Structure formats: C-alpha cells, structure tokens
Amino acid sequence: MEQILGLITGLVFGFLLQKGRVLRYxxxxxxxxxxxxxxxxxxxxAIIVGMFGILAMADMGIxxxxxxxxxxxxxxxxxxxxxxxxxxxxxxxxxxxxxxxxGRWHAxxxxxxxxxxxxxxxxxxxxxNDTILSWANFGKISLPDVxxxxxxxxxxxxxxxxxxxxxxxxxKGV
Length: 174
Fold this sequence. Notes:
Structural class: mainly alpha
C-alpha cells in the first residue's frame, strides 16, 4: 500500500511540476540567474504544504518524526554536487523525471548521471563516512530544538517569510 501511495504521490507531483511549467528550460535557467522565481515559488509552496501536513500527522500520532544527523560537511559537499548537476543538466531529480514524462528524452542523461552518482556514492561511502560526514556533525537536531520553541512557531514564521518573498517576487515581476 505504501508503494501505491508513493506512486500516486509521485504522479500528482509530476503533474503539478508540468502544470506549474517548472520543467521548462527557460524556467530552469531563469531560476539559476535569479530572473524567474517560478521554481522557487513552486518549491517553497510544496515545502510549506508538506511541512504543515507532516507536523499535523506527527501531532496526531500517525507518523513519528526522525531527523537525520546534521553535519555541515555532508550539507556543503552534497549541496555543491546537487547544484553543479542542476546547472550542467538543467534538471533536479523531480524535474528530470517530469521532463522524461513529457517526452523530452535528453533528460535521460540527467537521470543516468544521478544513478551513476548514487552508485559511486554507495561505493565510496565508507571513506565519505569517516571524513566528510564527520565534519561538524551536530547529531539529530532540528531548528525548533536549537531555538527552544515549538515546531509550529517555526512553521508559521517560515511561512510568513515565504509569503513576504512571494509578494516581493510579484512586485519585482520575477
């Protein structure tokens, strides 16, 4: 059942990516040049909806939250690799799959690159775990833990900041 729900969720997300036009090359380039904020608005909206859904399910006891360890090395190196891949191919994992679904077969090269990167990571994981993943490892922390506030306060403040950004983007016409 979980796999069927995952498939349905993925199909809905892909549909929304396509309808939001975030699969378009000009939107990808515009995002990288900070000239078109469509992708940022789309992703921040998805984060807000997901955040409230996850927090509500956690509060109702439907799910248990379990954070991964926060380590600066993994975030910096992983983020840099993700950004480089996005800049070279013009796709992140979700948009690559969406583009393939639209019939833009060149996105298969991005998918192959992602799978190759995952395979390489799996092979070098022991070395990465002993080096990069040990840099500034703060353990399983969350922003509400660090700030000493309820998770809903963080969610509401984050949403308010995003809404202010959306308004600024619209004012600037980006």
